[in-house]
Amino acid sequence: MASTPEFQHTVGKTASLSGTALHTGEKVSLKLHPAPVGYGIKFKRKDLQDEPTIDARIDNLKTVERATTIGEGSVRVHTVEHVLAALSAMDVDNAIVEMDANEPPIGDGSAQLYVDLIKRAGVTVQEEPRKFFDVREPMHVESKTGALLVLLPDEKFRISCTQAGPNNRFTQFLSMEVTPTAFEREIAPARTFVYYEDVQPLMEKNLIKGGSLENAIVVRGEAVLSKEPLRFADEFVRHKILDIIGDLALVGRRIRGHVVAVKPGHATNAELVRALAREQTRRSAIAVPRAMPTGDGGSRLMNHFFRGISPVIRSCRA
Ligand SMILES: [Zn+2]
Questions:
Q1: CATH code of the domain in which 88 resides
Q2: Distance in Å, CA 14 to ligand 1 centroid
Q3: Which DSSP category does 190 fall into?
Q4: Domains: count for the chain
């Protein structure tokens, strides 16, 4: 959609949709508004007094169980990953996501409704350059449950993902470069899938009031239960990639690197984002000396400064 990848983008005009929230089962309206350069993505709770906003940044991550929840103070927004994935992959850097509930509409469990929303709003280029996170050397995070995420240097944003269910059933692999076109065609339509044994206790506790075969694929043993047939033979790994894109959007920068993911989940995705944020903080600290004293003290500081960044220069790709 956008043809100027070095510059920030926002939506051309406000567009809206409504639907059902997954966890509360309540009706929710969502409006996507344009925002100025450097704004990032912020969720606005129109239903609360003073209409507080929550920055979609890793510092505001609260919980990662089943879905990604962000918050500031006592205000929360749940299940942000699908709308964030669509915004990020469709090239939107700056936008206000205004809602009258604590969760965006789940739609059919995919990101299709958000791609459609963004296309209705349009995507327009802005005057400021984008901020990138360039992966300079391999990084990785892993969990006790066998999830592994490796990030490798690459000039593009790529994801190679292996998904595996219980006893390695439904093992699927897909590797792709994340572009608006590829996201819209290959990833956005992939729906949420859940294992029956995981959702059964939640259904009994009434914790997923809006959950149904309308918005999730349920896997029970070898059986795949869904309202309509699978949209892709490997729909599960595509949805895993969707969630990775959405969670990594919490970095707040465009990633140039290759994510190699094995059995990923929201918790490990968030760990990788935290690692990226720490690395970005480290880089920012060495890139901007606060003050430059004159005389010998200044040259000593300069020497120290350049010693500090030399490994980074060595590992930087041409
Ligand atoms: Zn998801």
A1: 3.30.230.20
A2: 25
A3: P
A4: 1
